[in-house]
Design a protein that fits this description.
The protein is mainly α. The chain has eleven helices and three strands. The radius of gyration is 22 Å and the shape is globular.
C-alpha cells in the first residue's frame, strides 16, 4: 500500500462512482485458462471441505475442541473461496468487469472478513497444539468445547468489526479520477489508492488490519512453536518427541501454505516493483489454494480423520452387505 494521498481542496466535489472496473490480468495470452483453473480449484475446495465437515459430524469421536476449530476452518474456507472465485469467473470469463459500487463494497468486506478469519483460526490451532504439548496433563481442563467456542466467537467478532470498519471508512472516499482497480476483485489496497481525498484513515486501518491479521498471528504462531520445541526437548525418548511432533505436522503445513505466499508477495512489493500480473497471480493463488489444500492435508496427515474415514467406510460396507442379503 502506498503512502496517503494529499487532500482535495475544500470546495472539491465528493464523488462516489456508480461502478468500478476490475482490470484483472493485463495483456496476458490465454488468461482465460487461468480462470478456468480457478473453477476447478473452487469445485475441489467445496467437495473437500464438505467432506471434512461430514466426517466430523458423523464421527462422535471427533466431537472434540480441536475439531470444533477444524470445522470452523472448513466453513471459513468454503466462504472465503465463495467470496472470491465465483465473482472472478463472472467478471473475467463472462466479460463483466464493471461492478456496482455497492457490490464492490460487499465483495471487499467479505474477502477481508474471511481472509482475517483464516489467519485467526490458524492461531487458535497453534494454541491447541501449544497446550497439548506444553501442558499435557492440564489439556482437557484448559481446552474444552465451551472454551473453544468462546475463543472462536471472539475471533469472529474481531474479524467482523475490522472488516466492517474498513468498509465504512472506504465509503468516505471520493473518486474523481480513475475507477479502474488493478486487481482481480475489489481489492482494498489498490481501491483506496484511487481516491483523491484524504485516505489516511483507510490507510491506517489497512496497516492495522495487516498487523493484527498477518504480522501478529505469524509472531504468535512462531512463539508457540518455540515453546513447543523447548517442551519436546524435555521428553526423554526420541520416539516420544517424534510422536508429539507428528501431531503438529498438519498445522505446520497449513501455516506454511497460507502465510508463505502472502509473505513472498509483501517482500517482493517492498524490495522491488512487482509486475501487476505477477501480483494478481500471487495474491489470488494465496487466497484460493490454501482452502483447497486444507481438507486434503487434514485427511492425509491426521490420524484421527483417517481412522474416522476407515470406520465410516467399514460401516458403509456392512450396511451394503446387509441390504444385499
Amino acid at each position: 500500500m502506498n503512502s496517503p494521498n494529499s487532500t482535495l481542496p475544500l470546495n472539491a466535489m465528493f464523488v462516489q462512482p456508480q461502478f468500478f472496473y476490475i482490470s484483472g490480468l493485463y495483456n496476458l495470452p490465454n488468461a482465460k485458462y487461468y480462470y478456468i483453473f480457478l473453477c476447478f480449484v473452487y469445485v475441489v475446495t467445496i467437495i473437500g471441505n464438505s467432506f471434512i465437515l461430514f466426517i466430523i459430524y458423523m464421527e462422535r469421536s471427533l466431537h472434540t475442541p480441536k475439531y470444533v476449530v477444524v470445522c470452523n476452518l472448513a466453513i471459513v474456507d468454503v466462504c472465503s473461496s465463495t467470496a472470491i472465485i465465483p465473482k472472478i469467473i463472472d467478471t473475467f470469463l463472462f466479460d463483466s468487469q464493471f461492478i456496482r459500487y455497492e457490490a464492490c463494497l460487499a465483495n471487499m468486506c467479505f474477502v477481508l472478513f474471511f481472509s482475517a478469519m483464516q489467519s485467526l483460526i490458524l492461531v487458535v490451532l497453534a494454541y491447541d497444539r501449544f497446550v497439548a504439548i506444553c501442558f499435557p496433563l492440564r489439556y482437557h481442563n484448559i481446552i474444552t468445547n465451551t472454551s473453544m467456542i468462546v475463543i472462536l466467537a471472539v475471533m469472529w467478532a474481531i474479524a467482523a468489526l475490522v472488516a466492517i470498519t474498513a468498509t465504512l471508512l472506504f465509503t468516505r472516499l471520493s473518486f474523481c479520477r480513475s475507477i479502474v482497480i488493478n486487481s482481480y476483485y475489489c481489492d482494498y489496497g489498490p481501491a483506496i489508492n484511487l481516491a483523491c481525498n484524504d485516505i489516511s484513515p483507510s490507510f491506517i486501518m489497512g496497516i492495522f488490519g495487516t498487523t493484527i491479521f498477518f504480522v501478529a498471528p505469524v509472531a504468535v504462531i512462531a512463539l508457540s512453536y518455540v515453546c513447543i520445541i523447548f517442551a519436546l526437548l524435555k521428553i526423554a525418548t526420541q520416539e516420544g518427541r517424534l510422536k508429539a511432533m507428528q501431531t503438529c505436522t498438519s498445522h505446520l503445513i497449513l501455516v506454511a501454505i497460507f502465510y508463505l505466499p502472502i509473505c513472498a508477495t509483501y517482500i517482493s512489493t517492498l524490495s522491488s516493483t512487482i509486475h501487476p500480473n505477477a501480483r494478481i497471480i500471487n495474491t489470488s493463488l494465496a487466497c484460493v489454494i490454501p482452502p483447497m489444500l486444507n481438507p486434503i492435508i487434514y485427511s492425509l496427515k491426521t490420524e484421527e480423520i483417517m481412522s474416522a474415514i476407515k470406520k465410516l467406510y467399514r460401516k458403509g460396507n456392512k450396511l451394503n452387505s446387509h441390504a444385499i442379503e
